[in-house]
Specification:
globular; 43% helix; binds magnesium ion
């Protein structure tokens, strides 16, 4: 499983990186802009990310905008359905309205609230069929 963690908070980023490194290669980005560059490069190299953990509140480009741009990028490349990247949105509990919006619109596959719960995270990844 190749994962991209997009998170501006150092501690959350480090925690996710530690947890997800157990399951494969793990890259990190600190905002949506940097994430989109990494995602585009991965598509170009035919080695796309299997999973993106996307924080919502970030400087430069937030997670909502990055998610929309990711879906546009995939559409431009003719990717749809099961070929699109699995995205787990991550955010503070008091931002649950935003996260539910993205979830209901079907743009992301799952969401998590902080503080991060390892069991929930791994459960989502298993439900998405990314690990056994
Ligand atoms: Mg943040």
């Amino acid at each position: 499983m190749k994962t991209l963690i997009v998170e501006d908070d150092f501690l959350a980023r480090s925690l996710l990186s530690t947890l997800l490194s157990e399951y494969g290669v793990c890259h990190v980005a600190v905002n949506g802009r940097e994430a989109l560059d990494a995602i585009e490069r991965a598509f170009d190299e035919n080695d796309p990310y299997d999973l993106i953990c996307l924080d919502i509140m970030m400087p430069v480009m937030d997670g909502q905008e990055a998610l929309l741009e990711l879906r546009k990028m995939e559409a431009r490349r003719g990717l749809k359905g099961l070929d699109t990247t699995k995205v787990i949105m991550v955010t503070a509990i008091d931002d649950s309205k935003n996260i539910m919006k993205a979830f209901r619109q079907g743009q992301c596959e799952a969401y998590l609230t902080k503080p991060l719960d390892r069991t929930k995270l791994i459960g989502h990844i298993r439900d998405l069929g990314l690990i056994e």
